[in-house]
């Protein structure tokens, strides 16, 4: 069975209307890189927007070459006959503003200076992203998305869509998300940021000009983050206390398999990701809090929402725990929104939302059938 | 849902029509242990209710979503803390009371979250059940389809037991409908002749 969208390539959209950020900063011109799968129907009612998480990007499904390793980050979810069925929906994935996969971000050249933006790139919030995504929708002539879908930080964008543009989406699928970060979560992000900020190669964010990359800091940031995306059980299952060479070496080299794994993940990430983007993404996470302007009252914050919601959490996710999703559900119930909530038993922690999991995918498939029925 | 589905649902679950009869048009309803969402679909069709179900089973949750019913995954035995006080006109517990571990807590929670509660349950005092016991066996029937060793039912009761419970917990019974398996109403000797019963109740003012 061919259930892949096949070979895909990225497109680039240029926006010449200045974008005012939440922080007050203005970007006069910017580019967004995106991919699409499936066909937009004549009424333009079958569009689904996929919002990415911290390290994600526009390459959501399909492959860039015959190499199976070039598959998109959510290829198990999106494709012909898959839960988000590209035979039925027109799916858009984009790289968010501030990203490092082609959309305008800190590593892009600032046309005013001819140098990379670096530290001068505006601090970006979830609201800013949603605003820029709405312009991408305008470009396609999409008045209303059938659904906006995202996991983790992507789930926050789906939530924000329902608040910023209540009439522009019929369904929001909010997966492994939270209505705002806890202090512990901000703390993890700050340690990750400090690893980057204190790397001597960081140069206040303008490392591009010095021809170096703060890869030690970025590597540490990723290693820390990665631990929080897994669960104790998943790590125990996968690595336990296994030793790389079968015996203790009594030194600081890699001894335990978990060390090997984390260092590998850290190195891989440090080679492919931009340190400034990592900083921006973690700040966007920290800033997200729709209740901030409503005396910390989530019920009031969600009053503008009109969409129908599917909220999904995972039992072993301690970074964005099920109780955080239940807080979203409670606020939606207060506002009498249509909402369904699934708490998926999974051993994979926060990363579960990216995994192939039969019941999780059944839930998504069943809900997307409902989205399709409302086309 | 078309008219045939509605009729089929009503026929297979005689308590549905009894419950619908008590619920006014457009009411808000929370259905605890909602299964595949049949009752909520029925109530939406018959009474245009705004409803949500609570269900613990993964498979039934997916069935609800497929049926277009709002469903919140959760365990009734851990209470209703996810729901605000007086959030619903009615909180319904249909054919589930007997499977609840912390009955007192849940009934109290039903009347915190809802203005009124509705329960339906199989009457353990039904004559056929009594006959089974007299013969020396736990009853197995359409209403109680489980063997004693694999039953989810931990708190079976008779109509009389439930009414005593309500009196002891300062709960006003507002309505009662006692039925046979076929759904016809039982007037005389309900605790003996009724196989299933539905009650509508609220806290004593």
Note the main attributes of this structure.
heterodimer, A: 375 residues, alpha/beta, two-stranded antiparallel sheet, 10 helices, 34% helix, globular, B: 205 residues, seven-stranded mixed β-sheet
The largest sheet of chain B has its strands arranged as 3-2-1-4-5-7-6
Classify the secondary structure makeup of chain B into a structural class.
alpha/beta
- Tally of extended strands of chain B? 7
Give the amount of beta strand of chain A, in percent.
Answer: 15-25%
Average pLDDT for all residues of chain A: 97
Largest interface (C-beta under 8 Å): A-B, 22 and 19 residues
**What fraction, in percent, of the residue positions of chain A are helical?**
25-40%
The global form of chain B is globular
Number of helices of chain B: 8
Give the overall average pLDDT of chain B: 94
Query: SSE string of chain B, helix = H, strand = E?
Result: HHEHEHEEHEHHEHE
Placed side by side, the strands forming the largest sheet of chain A appear as 1-4-8-5-11-12-13-14
Distance between the ends of chain A: 27 Å
Low-confidence blocks of residues of chain A: none
- Binned, the helix content of chain B reads 25-40%
The largest sheet of chain B, given as strand count, sense and whether it forms a barrel, is:
7 strands, mixed
Oligomeric grouping of the chains: heterodimer
Order of helices and strands of chain A: EEEEEEEEEEHEHEHHHHHHEHEH
Distance between the termini of chain B: 38 Å
